[in-house]
Batch of 2 targets.
Target 1
Amino acid sequence: MAKELKELTKRSVNYSEWYNQLVVKADLAEQSDVRGCMVIKPYGYAIWEKMQRILDDMFKATGVQNAYFPLLIPKSFLSREAEHVEGFAKECAVVTHYRLKTNETHDGVVVDPAAKLEEELIIRPTSETIIWNTYKNWIKSYRDLPILCNQWCNVMRWEMRTRLFLRTSEFLWQEGHTAHATREEAEERAKMMLKVYAEFAEKYMAVPVVQGVKSETERFAGALDTYTIEAMMQDGKALQSGTSHFLGQNFGKAFEVQFLNKDNKPEYAWATSWGVSTRLMGALIMTHSDDNGLVLPPLLAPIQVVIIPIYKNEEQLQQIDEHVKPIQDKLRALGISVKYDNADNKRPGFKFADYELKGVPVRLVIGARDLENGTVEVMRRDTLEKETVQLEGIEAYVKQLLDDMQQNIYQKAVSFRDAHIYECEDYEEFKQKVKDGGFFLCHWDGTEETEARIKEETQATIRCVPFGVEQTPGTDMVSGKPAKYRVIIARAY
Amino acid sequence: MAKELKELTKRSVNYSEWYNQLVVKADLAEQSDVRGCMVIKPYGYAIWEKMQRILDDMFKATGVQNAYFPLLIPKSFLSREAEHVEGFAKECAVVTHYRLKTNETHDGVVVDPAAKLEEELIIRPTSETIIWNTYKNWIKSYRDLPILCNQWCNVMRWEMRTRLFLRTSEFLWQEGHTAHATREEAEERAKMMLKVYAEFAEKYMAVPVVQGVKSETERFAGALDTYTIEAMMQDGKALQSGTSHFLGQNFGKAFEVQFLNKDNKPEYAWATSWGVSTRLMGALIMTHSDDNGLVLPPLLAPIQVVIIPIYKNEEQLQQIDEHVKPIQDKLRALGISVKYDNADNKRPGFKFADYELKGVPVRLVIGARDLENGTVEVMRRDTLEKETVQLEGIEAYVKQLLDDMQQNIYQKAVSFRDAHIYECEDYEEFKQKVKDGGFFLCHWDGTEETEARIKEETQATIRCVPFGVEQTPGTDMVSGKPAKYRVIIARAY
C-alpha cells in the first residue's frame, strides 16, 4: 500500500488520472462488473452517510417529509410531459419481462418469453412522473397543499461514458418533489432549496459555490427554471453540484392534478423538484485533495483523529495503550471520532501514508519520549504541518484545530476559486484562456446560437446567470450584439 | 375522515380486511399504479426511518459497516449457485434494453430494438451474487477477513399476489453480507444477527418473537442454515419477521473467493447474509393495533404526544396557546416528540379520532376549565383510558406513561402469544385447531414428506425448530414415526 501510494499520479501531471486513482486507492468506490455501475465501499459510504444525515436534517427543518415511490415507471408515463420524455427516453433501462427460466441445456437461465410485460417499465431516471401520478389522488383542495416530499433512493441513467461518482449509470441521490397552490410559493420553494444546497456545500463540504439560474438550453427537461450551484474544481472546471427546478404547472397539467382554490375554482398545482447525488462526493474529493491523497473537511470525515503509537517493544506499547485510553475518552466526550491504530502488523510509516491517503484530518503520534515529556506530535492533514504539543488539554487543542481546518480548507478553496474567475470581453482571449480552466464572466446576447457556437468551438458551456453579481449591460463577445447581463461560462464535468 | 374512520372493518369481522383498510386510512402506504409496487407515505416512512436508525446503530455496534452495491445483476451471476437461481429466477424483473425512442406516430415512445443488451440484467431480488463477485477482489488473505458489510436498499421480487408491506414486488430492506475465515466465526455471526433482530423486535417494536432454525424446505435458496424470528399476529398466524443465513462456502465456491489462511494455504471464504424489510411494518401494525386504528409502541411513534385545545373563542385559544408553549418545551427537553394541533378548520372530535387512527401514544387535551384548575386530560392510546392530571410535573408523568405503555403493549402481546402456543400430539386435533390460528409445538419426524402433507392438508408450515424450548423425543403426529424434537407449525403470512 505504501508503495502503491507513491504511484498516485500527481495532479499537475494528469488531474483526471489523479482523481480516478485516488477514488480507488482511498477505498471510496470501484467499478463493478455491471457496466457503468459502481460499488461504494464502506469508507466512501461513511462520508455519504454523513452528508445524508446533515442534508436530511436541513430538509426537515424546512418542513419536508420523507416518503418512498416505486422504482419502476410505466413507459407511457414518460410521454405525458413532452420535454421530459425527450430528455430521458434516450438513457433508460427498460424492464420487458418478469421471469427467467432454465435453458434447454440446463446449465443456465434465459428470459421466459411467456413472461413479457404488456407495458414495458423503465427504471426511474428521476421520479416526477410517478410522483405526480400519485399526487393526483392526494390533492383535492388548497387545504391539501403544500405537499413537501423527499425520497432518498437510487436512479438509473444509461450513460455511455462513466466516471466514479461524477457520472455513473446508477447513482444514489435525494429527490424532493413539492406541490403548491400558487406560482409564487413554488418559486420561493425552488429558491429556498437552492439556498439549502449552497449552505450545505459551503458550511459542511467547505466547497464554495456560485448560485445562479440555468440558460434555457441547460434547463432540466420539463422545468421553467433550473437553479444551480456550480463549484470549481482544482483544474478550473465547473462541477454542477445540485439543482432545484421550478416546474410551473407542467406536471400538474400532464397528470391532471387539479385542486379547488379558496374561491372554489379548479386550478392546476404548481411544482418544484430538487436533487443532489453521490456526485457531491466527486466535488468533495476534487476540491480539497492533494498529491498525497484525500483532504476531508473535518465535519464530514468518518474518522476525525487517528492516534498512532511508536514503540520498540511490547512493554512500551502497553504503556502507550494505557496512556492513550483517557485521551480517546476526552476526545469522544467532545463528540470527536477517534481511531487508535495499534495494529502490530503494519509499520508506522505505512500507517502515516495510509491515513494521509484517506484524508483523516488530525494525526496524533505518541512515542516513548512523549510519555516521558507529557507531549504528543500533532499533524494536520490540510497543511501537513507537524507540531509537538502538551498532552494536558489536548482535547481542546484538537477541537480548535478541527474548527480551524474546516475554515482553512474552505478559505483556500474560496481563494482558488476567486483567483480563477475572469471578466472577459474578447472571444479570442476567451478561447485561449478557457483551455486552462476557470469561470469566465461574459456578456451574453441570450441566444441559443451563441451558446451553441461557444460550446462547439471551446467545449465550454454557460453554467448559469449568477446571483449576487452586479449586472450591467454590455456587448456579447461572440456575436457583438447587445447583452443584458453576464453569464458564467466554463468547461464542466 | 371521522366518517371514514367509523368504516374501519372490525378485526373480529374480517381481520385481513381490517389490516388492508388500516394501512391506507392511517396514511402509512398505498398501492401505486405500478403492479405490486407500493407508495410509502410520509407517516409510514417516518416509522420506517425510526426503525432504520435504531437497527443501523445496532449493526454498527457489532462492527458492521454500510456500503452500496449495484441494483442490476448480470443474468449469468444468478446461475453460479444452483439453488440460488432455482429460488429466485422465477420472480425476476429483467432489463433487456437501455433506450426508448419516439414511435412512428410521434405520440409516444417505444423500446429501441437497436439498444438490446448483450446479456440481460436482472433487478436484484437479493445481492449475494453481485456482492460475492465483488468480494472476490477484496479477499486475498485471512488478514482481509472478516468483511462485515450491510446495505439499505430496494429489492424486487415479482410477486403474483401482493399486500401492502407484507408482500410487495418492490420492497425496502437491509441486507448484511459477511465473509469469514472459519466456519465457526460465520455461524456465530449468523446467530448474532438473529439475536440483534430479536432484541430489536422485542425492545423497540414490542413484538415478541420465537427464535429458531428453519427446516431444509424453508431455507433461503443457497443457505446451509436459515435462522428466523417468527411473530404471532392477532389472528394467530405467523409472520416471519427477519432471517439470518449461514451460507457455508456456497458463494465462496460459486464466485471463487479464496484466501490464504495462516498456514498460507488457500481456502474458500465462509459467508452469512441477513435481512429485515418493510415487512416489519406489517408485523408492527398487526401485533398491536385495534378497531380504532393503529397502536404504536412509543419508541417508534413519529409523534409521541399530541396536544389538543378545546376552546369557545379566539381569546380562549390564545390563552391555551400560551399555556401550551412551556409544556411543549418541557416535553421536548426530555426527548419526547410533541405536536400541538390548534388547527382551526377541524373539530376536536375529528382530531381525537384521527390521532387514535394514527396511533399517537399520548393525547393531552386542555380546555378552559383546565386553565383554571391547572390540570390536563391525559389519554393513553393502548387502553384508551383517560385521566385528569395536574399540569405541574406533567413532563415526568408523560415520560413514565410512555415507558409504561411500551412495556404494557409488549406484555399484552406476550400474553396473547403464550396463550396461543399449544403442544399437540394428535393430527386430527391439529387440523381442527389450526384453522383458528396459533403456534403448534409438534413432534416432527424430520421428513419432507410429512412437511408437505401438513402443508397440503392444512396450509400450515413448519415455521422453525424453536430455540430455548426443552426438547424431548416423541412420535410424529402425522406419520407415527419417531421424532427427535418438536417444531412450531402454523399458518403464516
Target 2
Amino acid sequence: MNLIKIFSPATIANISCGFDVLGLCLDSIGDKMIIRKTKKKGVIISKIVGQILPLETNKNVAGVAALALLKKVDIGFGFDIEIHKNIKPGSGIGSSAASAAGAVFGINKLLGAPFSLQELIPFAMEGEKLASGTAHADNVAPALLGGFTLIRSYNPLDVIKIESPNELYATVIHPQIEIKTADARAVIKQKISLQKTIIQTGNLGGLICGLFTNDYNLIGRSLHDEIVEPYRSLLIPKFDNLKKESLKAGALGSGISGSGPSVFALCKGKKIAKIVGKVMAKTYEKTGIDFDIHISKINTKGIKIIQ
Amino acid sequence: MNLIKIFSPATIANISCGFDVLGLCLDSIGDKMIIRKTKKKGVIISKIVGQILPLETNKNVAGVAALALLKKVDIGFGFDIEIHKNIKPGSGIGSSAASAAGAVFGINKLLGAPFSLQELIPFAMEGEKLASGTAHADNVAPALLGGFTLIRSYNPLDVIKIESPNELYATVIHPQIEIKTADARAVIKQKISLQKTIIQTGNLGGLICGLFTNDYNLIGRSLHDEIVEPYRSLLIPKFDNLKKESLKAGALGSGISGSGPSVFALCKGKKIAKIVGKVMAKTYEKTGIDFDIHISKINTKGIKIIQ
C-alpha cells in the first residue's frame, strides 16, 4: 500500500463535567487526508485545501505529529500529506487534532501498523503542542479511538475508551467568532472550592455510569460544569440562550465544546438532535454572527479509511 | 410478619478519588438487628448489645431514622428495635449508617415494603445527621443498595448503584484510636487547585470505568486521592507504611476508609486480601495500638434478612 485516503473526524473535548479529561468523536464533520509514500525521506505537506495553514512541515500540526512518529521507526522512505480541511481552525471541535491524528493514523497504516491506536496518541499530541502550547490529548484521543475517551492520567498517559450509547447524537453550533486562547485560559479560576470539586466528580461519575448503562437521562442529569462553564461561557454570545433553548427542545444537556466558541448539545436520537439544531440556528440568526450547525451521531470508530 | 432479623453491613465511604461521592458495601462485618411490631405506636430501642449507645429513640441513629420513615406512613402500631453491634462506633466503616439503614430497611419490610431501597436512603440519612451533624449518604447508600454507590448529587439526591467485579475484596484495618470529627474536618483544605481537581475527576472516572469493565488494574491505577488523603492520613499512625506494604503485598490500591482511622485496601481475590491483612497486622503490631482486621468480598446485595 503506497497511498491511503482517510476521514479524520472533528471531536468535542471537555464535555461539561469532563473538563480536561473527557472527549468524544463526531461523525458528520471531519477532514479528508491523502497520505502517500515518497522515495525521499521525511515529511512534506504538499497541499492544504479549504483553509490557509502553514505548509512547512515543522509549522504544521500534521507535519509535527508525523515527524514524532517517524523518529521511532527506521525506514528508508518518507511521506507526502495532502489535507482537505472541513473543520475550521479555532472552532473548538478539534481542527488541529483531526490533522495531527489523521497524519499519524495514515502513516501508521502505510507502515503496516507497527503502533496500536493507543500508541499513536502521544505522537498526535505533539501536533497539539504546536497548535496550543500544551500537548493535550482530549481531542486526539477520541479522533483516534472513537466513542468517548477518558484521560485518567497524563503522567503516565492513561487513556480509556468508553463506548457510546447507540442513540446518542451531538448537535454543535459553531459561531464564527474568534476566542483568543489567552482569554479562554485567563477566565478560568485556578482555585476551586472543595464543594465544587465534589460536585464535579459526582457529575463526571454519573456521566460515565450513564454511558455504560445507556441511561440517557442520567447522562443528561450529569452534564453540568460549575468550574469552567460559568466563566468561559461569558465569551460566547448567547450561550445561556443556546443552552436554555436546546434543553427546552429536548436535548439531554449542553455545554461548551473544547474552549469554545462552539457549543454542543447531546441528544437521544437524530430527530431531537435536528430539532435542537433548528432552535440553535433560530437563537443565533438574531445575532448577525455567522454560524455553522453540525448534527452527528457519536462516531464509535474514530478515523476511517475511505475507499 | 411481626418480626424481622437482619444483617446490616459495614461500609467504606470516600474510596480515595471518590471523596464524598463513592461508597462500597462490606460483607464479613456488620450488625445484627431484630425489629418487632409493637401494639404501641412509635419506636423504642429495647436493647443494644456490644456497645454503649443511647437507648432514647431520638438520641439513637436507628431511632431517628425509623421516626423519619414513620412520619411518611399512617399506621396504628409501632416498632421495637434490638441492635447487636459488631461495628465499633468511630471506626470509619459506617457504624451509624448500619444502624440507621438497618432500622429503615427492617421497618419497611415489616410494613410490606411501601418504599423502594432508593427511597429509604433519605430516612437513613437522618440518622447520619444525628451522628455527625451532616445528612451524608455515602455509607447508608451502599448499606441499603449493596455494591458500589455513586452520589451524583445531593440536591436533588441522585444515587447510582454500580455492580462490583466478582473477585473484588476489601481488607480493612481498624486502628483503635479516636480521630475527632473536628480534627478530621479541620485538616481538609477548602480550596483545591484546578490541576488537582482535574486529576481527581480523571481518577474517579477511571475507577468507575474499571468497575464496569472488571479491569482490576485500572481500578488500582485509579485509587489515588491528592485532595484529602495527604492531609487526613497524618492523623492515622503508620498510614504510609500500611499503604506501601499493602501495595507491595499485591493490593490494587489503598486509602482511608471514611474519615478514618480505618484504612482499606482493595484486592483481586481472597488470597491476596488475606496476605494484605497479614502485612497490615504486621505493620501495626509494632505500634502497640490495638487493631481489628476485616477481610471481605464486596457485598453486592446490601442489608440481608437472616432466617
